[in-house]
């Protein structure tokens, strides 16, 4: 019996992460950067790509006034789905069992920020995404003249979101800035809902 319990404890915990955003926001480049792949050879995603990341997260436990650190492994299944207008109606086919939604915004694309907001607001109304953790990656913030985190926060009306726990992080898929921090936040937030330990 103890060996069964140990195996269950050591088994990777899985999370399904759906990565969406308008076309050319940098979704695939983010995934490639996180995976350590070449980011110079990215073409538009015409369907979907699934990548699995073995993620090790640190968990703090408070035992008799002493703090012991424990590491848990998570298997992150990231679904990177194309963002072209013709593909957006298919997004709903990927909602099932989604634990977290990463919404990628092109911080240099001021012209389509309203379209970006409308698409995100539509997603947040979907019953199959109810309760999913939401991370907004403001991508391409390494480009001069891009929108600030505060501008994107305002344009997307993020502070009005009550249906999901959310966070926004400026990032760069090219330099890797804040990508690990974003994934870490997603895992920490989602694991509270999904796992007992």
TrEMBL record:
Mg(2+) binds at residues 28, 45. SMART domains: ARF, SAR. GTP binds at residues 21-28, 83, 139-142. GO terms for cellular component: cytoplasm; plasma membrane. InterPro entries: Arl2, ARL2/3, P-loop_NTPase, Small_GTP-bd, Small_GTPase_ARF/SAR. It comes from Fusarium torulosum. Transmembrane segments: none annotated. Keywords: Cell cycle, Cell membrane, Cytoplasm, Developmental protein, GTP-binding, Lipoprotein, Magnesium, Membrane, Metal-binding, Myristate, Nucleotide-binding. Belongs to the small GTPase superfamily. Arf family. One of its GO terms (molecular function) is metal ion binding. GTP-binding protein that functions in embryogenesis, cytokinesis, germline development and microtubulule cytoskeleton dynamics. CDD domains: Arl2. It is found in: Cell membrane; Cytoplasm. This is Abnormal eversion of vulva protein 20. PROSITE patterns: ARF (PS51417). Pfam families: Arf.
């Amino acid at each position: 019996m103890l060996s069964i319990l140990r195996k269950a404890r050591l088994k990777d915990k899985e999370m399904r992460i759906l990565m969406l955003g308008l076309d050319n926001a940098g979704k695939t480049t983010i995934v490639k950067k996180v995976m350590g792949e070449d980011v110079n050879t990215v073409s538009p995603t015409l369907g979907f790509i699934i990548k699995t990341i073995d993620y090790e997260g640190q968990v703090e436990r408070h035992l008799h006034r002493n703090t012991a650190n424990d590491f848990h492994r998570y298997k992150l299944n990231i679904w990177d789905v194309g963002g072209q207008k013709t593909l957006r109606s298919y997004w709903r086919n990927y909602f099932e069992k989604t634990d977290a939604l990463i919404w990628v915004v092109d911080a240099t694309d001021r012209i389509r920020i309203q379209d970006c907001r409308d698409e995100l607001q539509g997603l947040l109304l979907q019953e199959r995404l109810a309760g999913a953790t939401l991370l907004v990656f403001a991508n391409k913030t390494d480009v001069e003249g891009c929108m600030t985190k505060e501008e994107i926060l305002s344009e997307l009306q993020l502070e009005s979101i009550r249906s999901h726990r959310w966070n926004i992080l400026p990032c760069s898929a090219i330099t890797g800035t804040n990508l690990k921090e974003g994934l870490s936040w997603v895992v920490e937030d989602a694991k509270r809902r999904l796992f007992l330990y």
